[in-house]
Amino acid sequence: MPQIGKAEAQKFVDRLPHCRELNIRVEDAAPAQVSMSLPYDARLIGDPDTGVIHGGAVSVLMDTCAGASVRMHPENGGALATLDLRIDYMRAAKPGDSILAEAKCFHVTRTVAFIRVRAWDSDTSVPVATASGAFTFTPISKSERPPA
C-alpha cells in the first residue's frame, strides 16, 4: 500500500521528466486526493500575443494530478496508466498566474479508477478547465490490507 502524503505524491511527480521540466509541485495530498501547481513560465506560452499558457501544459498538469490521486488511493497496489481523460477548457488562464489543479479519485473497481479534476488560476470563480477520466487500477492484495 502506498504511503499517503505530500512527499509520496511529489515522488510520483518527480519520476516524470516532463513534470520536472514544467516544475509541477504537489501542494497537498490526502487519501485519493491531490492538489498541484504549475508556475507561470514564459517557455510555456502558447500565444505570444496574449501570454497565455499553452493548453498542453495544462493537460499535463491535470493528467498528472489525476494519476497522483489514483496513486494516493489507499487501495492502490500497483502501476497505473491513463485510459481516458476528457478535458473541457472553460477559459484561458491569466498570463502571469500559476495554475492550480485538484484531483479526486472518487471510485475504483477491480481494474479501473475514476477521477475528476479542476484547474484554476487566481480567479477561483470559473475554472480554467475541468476533466474526468479513467485510469488502470490494481488493488492491493488481501494480505497487504490493514486489519479492520
Our Rg estimate from Cα atoms comes to: 16 Å
Helix content: 10-25%
CATH architecture: Roll
Distance between the termini: 15 Å
Provide the domain count: 1
Strand content: 35-45%
As for the CATH topology, it is Thiol Ester Dehydrase, Chain A
Structural class: alpha+beta
CATH superfamily: Hotdog Thioesterase
Q: State the major sheet.
A: 6 strands, antiparallel
- Molecular shape: elongated
Q: Widest sheet: strand order?
A: 1-2-6-7-8-5
Provide the succession of SSEs: HHEEEEHEEEE
CATH class: Alpha Beta
Uncertain segments: none
Rounded average pLDDT: 92
What's the short version?
The protein has 148 residues and is of the alpha+beta class. It is 22% helix and 35% strand.
Can you characterise this structure?
With 148 residues, the protein is of the alpha+beta class. The protein has one domain: Roll (Thiol Ester Dehydrase, Chain A). The chain has three helices and eight strands, in the order ααββββαββββ. The strands form two sheets. It has a six-stranded antiparallel beta sheet. A two-stranded antiparallel ribbon has the order 3-4. The longest helix is centred in the middle third of the chain and has 17 residues, at 55-71. It is elongated, with a radius of gyration of 16 Å. The two termini are 15 Å apart. The model has no long low-confidence stretch (mean pLDDT 92).
